[in-house]
């Protein structure tokens, strides 16, 4: 499976999939997609990278431990419910704002922040499982 | 009512907990001298409660409180009458000297601050217990005394014996506490009240209830375990593992009296029935004899005292069980007398141990010259315990002998009380006289008088005994009268005289007790040998039984664990799936849910093709020789299903399904390699057939479920709501995602937390396994450079 072609293509494929996962995440509110699916796609992207190039480069590329990313996502999702409290509304009530950036109206909301948190949780949790499983696989190969 | 005037008391009763907080800090600064300062807390409370003595002796009763947990109807409410007030005075009064004593006794102990803290916590709990009016808060304080007692018995936690004793006390008294909770709740439910004062106001209402026996048994289970009645008496002597201040305070004067307090408190509501007047004297009498005989057997000062405490508690329970006014007056006096002399004697025993280095009565003698003040305190306490005039112990004995002698059919009780008192007399002097008289004996430490902190407490408590007796009219009006009024639930006037007004049965019985007591004291060594022979011959006791019960429980747990956690993944999965099958198939079979065959839809060619792929995947899964092929085939089946979702208008679902299937295949393949599964299936035919049946049943079950669901008329309320509102309220066209992140956002927050925790758990499991096989050294060196990058 670990052919030269696969190893060469894998980084590009991973990059493409990661961009696509962000696209899926952002369009989720109106079109099929969302944080959960986006996170799964991103995890698959990193899985491909890991299978092709080994675990260590993936870890280096992620900078943070995947579990830390997952925890960060959970924190972000939890925090996204707080602004509503400040506005005197029940926890997690959606708040929207429509700033104009470079002539385009951008619909931003606490819901989007929440969805990004979901994305990070799924991405982090799945990736850490995948990498954890793969890692030992490599160990064994070297031990023998 | 009366809340405004009595509100300070509610706060005052919480002072010990505050003191518990600052005690470690204070001890860090002042070291053992902190005891003097901390003792000011119970002393101040004692003075505060003294203020109630006047009104209470005039027959007043105070009930006041504030809401604690309004949602459950629990109040922090107090009931101050004669009974609870005298208990509060004993707890704070004796507590003052105990804290002073603990300062000297544990001088230089590295954990003295913690000890003070535990003691203060216990004091607060005990005070809360006797003052509590609300039934649930009574239970809370009751269990709090058990827990603090556990901490104090196990204070010397480096020793196994202390740990065992602490655990034993917690199991016995805590278990009894649970029974008490049930009893109190049941009583409250039957009476429709939530407070003790409410229960007492019912009069005899509980006694006519069909639940009376249940309430009686449950309350007694609580009282008997706490007050160490046979057959639960074994924990109390073991609790002597605690430092002496604990034994002197908890296991003589206060905590073990909680059961007695409860029985006294509930006597108007539960007492004076045939059951009450049979069961209580029976168990009380048995406990009295058991405790007294076992006390004779001991040579350790503390253990002798502990067993006499058991005996005295038995005596009290027996006396309460008569439900007779005069006898109960005797019990009330004895209660006070016992707290004073037993507290003093325990502290004396601790003082001797502290100064002479041993508590073994056979190795002690001639200490009177070295420790004169301690000797005086010991003698005063022993005279009260032995029931000699002019001491309150004598007064108490006179009154209950008098009461018992006038009671019909109480001959056995008189005999039991007599035998018990004779033995207690002998033990009293064995503890208080023997170590001090006779020729001087060489002791492990060179004995000299204890510091003031060690003799102050015993001396004051011992001096209180003659003081209360000589002021007998005051004692009757202020102490005995109010207590008996509370216990009987009706006004009671007492006429207490130190000098007997007539030569009756009581005086004769007292004289006989003293005469026989002297004989028993002189023949104590022979008596001890005789009891030892008997106990050795019997061999088994409840203490051993406790160990056997605990060991049996551990064995049972092992059996259950082997049954439900055999450790084989196959068993877990099979069991789980079998339960799913049962849950799916049993309801339609039992309830007869109609399952109609669905209307066969028009299926286009490409839909057939996709279905065909799914079925093909399944066939490969079941027949594949290699596991890897089976996993991939399962993925193909999943992809086919995802395509079906896509075709039938669920793009989100199918999208997710695609991703999940992909990742499942990757993860399963990785797991397989990692766990060294055999690459192919090696199940014997019989097991394979069994699994086939289970799998088929699961499939049939899910099909039935789906058909039943589809057969119901479709309720479109929810889909209509979301279709209408997702754009209007949540500004999103994708209904599924809007539900996930907005309408049901809180659910999602919980779910992603689960995802994260699952990831953590899996990671931990992987780490656990990876650590087991240690790679050989040369290989490790080769791995090292790469391993760095992985961190």
Structural class of chain B: mainly alpha
Query: Going across the major beta sheet of chain A, what is the strand order?
Result: 1-4
Strand order of the largest sheet of chain B: 1-2
Oligomer: heterodimer
General form of chain B: elongated
Major beta-sheet overview of chain A: 2 strands, antiparallel
The ordered string of helix (H) and strand (E) elements of chain A is HHHHHEEEEH
Radius of gyration of chain B: 36 Å
Alpha plus pi helix count of chain B: 34
User: What portion of residues of chain B belong to β-strands?
Assistant: under 5%
Summarize the structure in short.
The complex is a heterodimer of chains A (144) and B (791). Chain A has one domain (4-143). Chain A contains 6 helices and 4 strands, in the order αααααββββα.
Secondary structure elements and pairings:
The complex is a heterodimer of chains A (144) and B (791).
Chain A: H1 4-27, H2 35-53, H3 55-62, H4 66-79, H5 82-86, E1 96-97, E2 100-101, E3 104-105, E4 108-109, H6 110-143
Antiparallel strand pairs in A: 1-4, 2-3
Helix pairs in contact in A: 1-2, 2-3, 2-6, 4-6
Chain B: H1 3-12, H2 15-30, H3 34-38, H4 40-57, E1 62-69, E2 74-80, H5 82-105, H6 112-131, H7 135-153, H8 160-191, H9 196-201, H10 205-208, H11 212-226, H12 235-238, H13 244-253, H14 257-270, H15 274-297, H16 301-320, H17 325-356, H18 372-386, H19 392-405, H20 411-432, H21 452-470, H22 472-488, H23 505-522, H24 524-538, H25 542-564, H26 569-591, H27 605-623, H28 627-647, H29 651-674, H30 685-711, H31 717-728, H32 735-743, H33 745-771, H34 777-790
Antiparallel strand pairs in B: 1-2
